[in-house]
Design goal:
- The complex is a heterodimer of chains A (489) and B (375).
- Chain A has 489 residues and is an alpha+beta fold.
- Chain A folds into two domains: 313 residues, no CATH class; 104 residues, Elongation Factor Tu (Ef-tu), domain 3, CATH 2.40.30.
- In chain A, the strands form five sheets. Chain A has a six-stranded antiparallel beta sheet with strand order 14-15-16-13-10-17. In chain A, strands 4-3-2-7-8 form a five-stranded mixed beta sheet, with helices on both faces. In chain A, strands 1-9 form a two-stranded antiparallel ribbon.
- Chain A is globular and about 95 Å long.
- In chain B, the strands form two sheets. Chain B has a six-stranded mixed beta sheet with strand order 1-2-5-6-7-8, sandwiched between helices.
- With 375 residues, chain B is α/β, with parallel strands linked by helices.
- In chain B, helix 1 packs across helix 3, helix 7 crosses helix 8 and helix 14 crosses helix 15.
- Chain B is globular and about 80 Å long.
- In chain B, a hairpin with a 6-residue loop joins strand 7 and strand 8.
- Chain B is built from 15 helices and eight strands.
- Chain B folds into three domains: 104 residues, no CATH class; 182 residues, Alpha-Beta Complex (Lambda Exonuclease, Chain A); 51 residues, no CATH class.
- The interface between A and B is large, with 55 and 53 residues.
Chain lengths: 489, 375
């Protein structure tokens, strides 16, 4: 956590209302997101209890497992979930655009991609387990399931995997998305409670954020956002309802369980859509579109993989796959951090505080300055910037500017509050810089050593070439009937 | 510590607790001692064996902990499954995991004797097993071990103790969270390991007491969990050496509670003696006042470990402590402990005290940058 965020938290605590820690929104919010709130049975790894899911705030679909220990009912739940999720996902597969590439064939990319919003990280982890427990099932052979079940499993696995990638917005944990933009007057741990977090951000009229958050901690007023249910509810309400179903599995008994679970899900359902509104009200950061474009590309590739009949994702990554995944996540993290700082002066301020960036006013500019003679003459305009920031950049450091794309400069000298820079890139091909490409005296500028340059992917061997130190080439995955028969109790 | 000193110390603890019986520590409670070691309030209450749950409820700040009947049922069902037919399933697992090459296996249910004899019975059985070495693997079900915590004996019940050839004892911990594709939730495994380390320590103490080598109790505990999504158990070895050393330090510190007691006012007590209706006779306000005499060190982590958490959080709020916002925020504030103080420094309405110049400069700069960026 940065000092700036710590300061924002202090102010939130004093003023009784959450404080913005960004000036723009850094995640994509779809025009038509799907909200998915799962509940699980306490004490079980992946026993779904219920889910509220849908794209229309006014018409949630409630799915319920009246006896969560019953295998058939669980698969019926999975099929019900597939009935909502799969058509939503497939709705994005049809319209595509052709993307031209400098080298290589042009390719197709979906114009939009699904976006799934879940309340918190544990809910996402639960969805991942649900994916793991359904993707190896089969529609034929022993223990057949509805054909949509394994497909649902593959999508859940893909989406929950993707949500680990910094900057991806295809599946968001709402508490994380909100915490990215607001600081509350409580701890991170307490922010994991969606109702409390929203209490700070958007307290009901006449109530302070602190008071609203306190109220939100009462499970009777605000049932937990899941996936775990309130133990009091389990013991007092759900337990008897499930026992009644066991004794007589009638429609009335199912109704009783459904009604009980509805009371636990509806408040969170409303909070989820309120969160969507709040996030939508923030202006979108400039590079959010670029990152969503990558999500669309990834989505398209997964659609193709399924269409080609590829096998379900393996249980565990092989050595090469794991290393590649890790390297990919690291690159995504680095790039995401830099992009956000470039999009957002408030985040850039954190780097100014640590001396990796500075902002100030141009005091002088020598636009004609050049180095070398004749053919090797290079245009190197010099500018001097006055700043109050504690700059910790040494001469020869290359810096870029969030205000000008493609612009780069090199630090020449740092003296007390004055920095001399040599512009090296982004001036056009003429003998003098293109108009506006070099900042002029009086102009407000900012520079940083953070750059989001292209990084090539890590050089890793093919999986077949995995060295013995890493277990040798992994065994080819062959889905067998064993997987389909795996118990799910 | 001389005998007289020891007596006054124990008297003092009794006085703090009042006439209620000392609340025994179970392994979970002992393991939790390692969390937030700097909290005097908790150290004193634990050493005196005060019922923290009842205390918190009486002062109007019950802890938000509850257990679902579904989780309890599942735990019991799974444990019964593992122990069925004289731990037959467990034997299968240990054969694979420890390379146990034994045809003969014994099963001793320590619970067969009366509860008052269980501890001495466990002692005798473990002593015999440590002496005889006939290559038979033996499971001891429901053993009762003991551990001295700040002058009080706590009795502990590990799930199973296994003794096998190779002359080693293994603590077996049965948990009902799942191990999926060889992985379980790290926090749950850590909690199980902390708990198991308490049993390892208790068994080692017993071994040393009986004149055997305590190292014969393995630091690798056997964790038994359901595999994937089914009820079928699977087992893994968990190394608890790290947890053992933390626990050792913590228990050593608890004997240092004496020094903490010296600073407390005379006559201080957390007496919870009930009246005829079962409710403590002492007024909630008086009890709260007594609690406030002992300094706490609240951190948000307490919300998941300590019964007193809501009370201490309320107190931290009342005095505007930066502890409320978590360690990460505290770390950024360079030791400034009050929220108002930090804000005043940032906004330049307060002159930094000696030693605060550096953090004040940083906070002022942060404040300026924030204002500038939000303009």
């Amino acid at each position: 956590m940065s000092t700036l965020t710590a300061l924002a938290r202090l102010r939130a605590a004093r003023d009784g209302v959450a404080q913005r820690i960004t000036t723009v929104r850094h995640c994509h919010i779809s025009a038509q997101p799907l909200v998915f709130i799962p509940l699980k049975l306490a004490g079980e790894a992946a026993a779904p209890l219920a889910a509220m899911v849908g794209t229309d705030p006014g018409h949630p679909r409630l799915l319920v497992v009246p006896q969560p220990r019953n295998r058939d009912l669980r698969f019926a739940f999975a099929a019900g979930l597939a009935e909502v999720l799969l058509p939503y996902i497939e709705g994005f597969e049809k319209s595509t655009e052709t993307v031209e590439r400098k080298s290589g064939e042009p390719y197709e990319r979906c114009l939009d991609a699904p976006q799934i919003l879940m309340p918190n990280r544990p809910a996402v982890s639960f969805a991942a387990l649900l994916g793991r427990s359904t993707r190896f099932r089969k529609a034929e052979g022993p223990y057949p399931v509805h054909p949509s079940v394994p497909l649902l499993g593959r999508w859940l696995t893909y989406l929950t995997d993707r949500s680990l990638r910094p900057g991806s917005s295809m599946l968001l944990a709402t508490t994380e998305a909100l915490s990215l933009h607001w600081a509350t007057g409580q701890s991170n741990l307490e922010d994991a409670n969606l109702a409390a977090l929203l209490g700070w951000i958007d307290p009901p009229g006449g109530m302070s954020g602190r008071r609203a958050a306190e109220e939100a901690e009462d499970p009777l007023l605000w049932p937990p956002a899941g996936p775990a249910t309130d133990p009091g509810f389990d013991n007092e309400v759900l337990g008897p309802a499930i026992r009644a179903y066991e004794e007589a599995p009638t429609d009335r008994a199912v109704d009783r369980v459904s009604q009980a679970l509805r009371t636990q899900l509806e408040p969170t359902w409303r909070l989820m859509w309120r969160s969507v509104e709040l996030l939508r009200s923030l202006p979108e950061g400039a590079r959010v579109k670029d990152r969503w474009e990558m999500d669309r590309g990834s989505f398209t590739r997964f659609v193709e993989r399924i269409a080609e009949g590829g096998p379900p994702q393996a249980r565990r990554d092989g050595a090469v796959g794991a290393a590649a995944r890790l390297a990919g996540l690291e690159r995504a993290r680095a790039s995401y951090d830099v992009q956000r700082a470039h999009d957002d002066p408030l985040l850039m301020a954190e780097y100014r505080l640590s001396g990796e960036a500075f902002a100030g006013t141009v005091t002088s500019a020598d636009l004609e300055h050049a180095e070398g003679e004749g053919r090797s003459r290079k245009l190197r305009p010099l500018i001097t910037v006055r700043t109050g920031d504690p700059v910790r950049l040494s001469p020869k450091t290359t810096v870029g500017s969030p205000d000008r794309r493609g612009h780069a400069a090199e630090i020449v000298e740092v003296t007390d509050g004055e920095i001399t820079l040599k512009v090296t890139k982004g001036m056009g091909r003429g003998r003098t810089p293109a108009p506006g490409s070099v900042p002029e005296p009086g102009e407000r500028v900012s520079y940083t050593s953070l750059t989001d340059d292209f990084q090539s992917s890590a050089a890793l061997p093919d999986p077949e070439q995995t060295p013995w130190t890493h277990g040798g080439p992994p065994q080819e995955y062959e889905p067998g009937d064993d997987d389909a028969q795996e118990e799910w109790l | 510590m001389n005998t007289l000193g020891e007596r006054t110390f124990l008297n003092r603890l009794d006085e703090l607790r009042g006439p209620m019986p000392s609340r025994p520590h179970d392994a979970r409670a002992i393991a939790a001692l390692a969390a937030n070691p700097g909290c005097v309030r908790r150290a004193v209450m634990d050493a005196a064996g005060v019922d923290k749950d009842l205390t918190a409820r009486h002062v109007g700040f019950p802890a938000p902990f509850g257990q679902s009947q579904f989780a309890i049922t599942r735990g019991n069902v799974f444990e019964a499954l593992v122990k069925e037919n004289g731990c037959a399933e467990l034997l299968r697992l240990l054969r694979e995991l420890l390379g146990l090459e034994v045809a003969q296996v014994g099963y001793q249910d320590v619970e067969s004797v009366g509860s008052h004899l269980r501890h001495s019975h466990t002692r005798a059985l473990i002593d015999r097993a440590a002496r005889e070495d006939d290559g038979t693997a033996v499971f001891y079900d429901h053993p009762l071990l003991s551990l001295e915590i700040a002058g009080h004996t706590s009795y502990l019940e590990p799930d199973v103790v296994a003794f096998q050839i190779g002359r080693r004892f293994h603590i077996v911990e049965i948990k009902s969270f799942s191990m999926i594709d060889g992985q379980a939730e790290p926090e749950k495994v850590a909690a199980a390991a902390r708990q198991a380390s308490v049993y390892v320590m208790a068994l080692r103490t017993l071994m040393a007491d009986l004149g055997h080598d305590p190292e014969r109790v393995s630091h690798n505990v056997v964790l038994v969990c359901p595999e994937n999504f089914a009820n079928r158990p699977t087992a893994a070895l968990v190394d608890v050496r790290k947890h053992l050393s933390v626990l050792n330090r913590q228990l050593a510190r608890m004997t240092g509670v004496e020094r903490l007691l010296e600073d407390l006012p005379d006559g201080l007590t957390f007496d919870l003696a009930p009246g005829e209706d079962g409710v403590p006779t002492r007024s909630a306000q008086e009890l709260a006042q007594a609690l406030l005499q002992v300094p706490a060190r609240y951190a948000p982590d307490c919300l998941s470990t300590c019964d007193m958490c809501m009370f201490c959080r309320h107190e931290a709020r009342a005095c505007g402590s930066t502890d409320l916002l978590g360690r990460q925020v505290r770390d950024q504030l360079g030791g400034v402990s009050g929220m108002d103080e930090a804000l005043d420094l940032a906004e330049g309405t307060r002159e930094p005290a000696e030693g605060q110049e550096e953090i004040a400069r940083l906070l002022r700069l942060a404040h300026r940058l924030r204002e500038e960026s939000l303009r």
